[in-house]
Amino acid sequence: MLGRPRSRVAAGLPAVTPDHIIDAALELTARHGVETWTLRQLASAVDVYPAVIYHHVGDREAVVTAVVDRVLAKYQLPEADLPWSDWWRRFLTNLRAVFVQYPGVARRVALSGPSTETGGPTVDAAMRSLLGAGFEQDEAALVCRLLISQACLFVSLEDDQRHASAVRAQIAGGWGALTSDPNLDALATLNESVQDRLNDPKRNPDYFGELFDYAVDRMLDGIAQRLHEMTGH
User: What pTM did the predictor assign?
Assistant: First the structure.
């Protein structure tokens, strides 16, 4: 970066703006994960000194917060008139489709949630779907937190397993290893299933997606039963 012209226009570079910085941080997040890139890498991507990042956006945490908000703005909310369980199934599926493109963002949301400005409309729509279904206020809040946090945690696990070959090797070598103990024949069945899914992408091209959908469906089944117990319908 030393020796470049003082004017970015003269150098043929775009003007430095907060949006330009966050765009670059979003690209780094997609390639490396939100927890991996450094402020120096971001400054290099924008072709500025790190102090310019501080001036326009703030420290790394401020940039990450902006990245999380930008990611959350990418998914679409389902139609408001859907039945509550269909609304949540579509919402969580849409959420995963966006989160898997930006490793580490789901974990951030699970830990601290989005900013009120960005997350407010989403949480409002989510709560409306539950209140309209007949959940009382306190229980609706619990259901909302449960579903969003568990979906984020599932995607976080997917991030770790998808991008860490050592983790996949540990799973394959542990739960995927066949056992010769005749007293553990049920365990052998599970191990065989894990091994097949990990090593044969043709058999199951989206194991993570299938597992996520199964978890969401089973959570919604349980919550629907709870609603039936409370309301009788």
Answer: 0.80
